[in-house]
Amino acid sequence: MAQQPETITTLPTQTENTSEATTPKPLQSPFCSRLRSKKFYFLQQMPTEERHLLDATGHCWCTQTMQAIGPDGERALPKNCNAERNCYRSLFE
Above 60 in pLDDT, residue 13? Predict the structure, then answer.
């Protein structure tokens, strides 16, 4: 009995379109990396709750503007400085 030649099946390859390729987004931290308070400088870990940043004064500022107002004109507070704002930067970037 004659042997039949072995056939090799190849799977079609998917071509990547560089215009559609996107870089993965970094993990999002609960607060913007530019948000600061006096209490921030005493933290031993990344702030994950408002109480980690807010002291009795409740005063925070943005390191980009060095004011209590962020670059988008909104207040710099833990409840405001999150991924919903255009000026937000993750602590993981």
Answer: no
Number of domains in the chain: 1
Q: Are 65 and 72 in contact (CB under 8 A)?
A: no
| 35-53 per-position pLDDT tens digit | 999 999 999 999 999 999 9
Q: How far is CA 82 from CA 1, 48, 62, 70, 72, in A?
A: 73, 11, 12, 12, 13
Name the pTM for this structure: 0.71
- Domain hosting residue 55, numbered range: 26-93
Backbone angles phi, psi at 50, to 5 degrees: -55, -40
Residue 34 lies in a domain: yes
Distance between CA atoms of 78 and 75, rounded to whole angstroms? 9
Cα distance between residue 52 and residue 79, in whole Å? 12
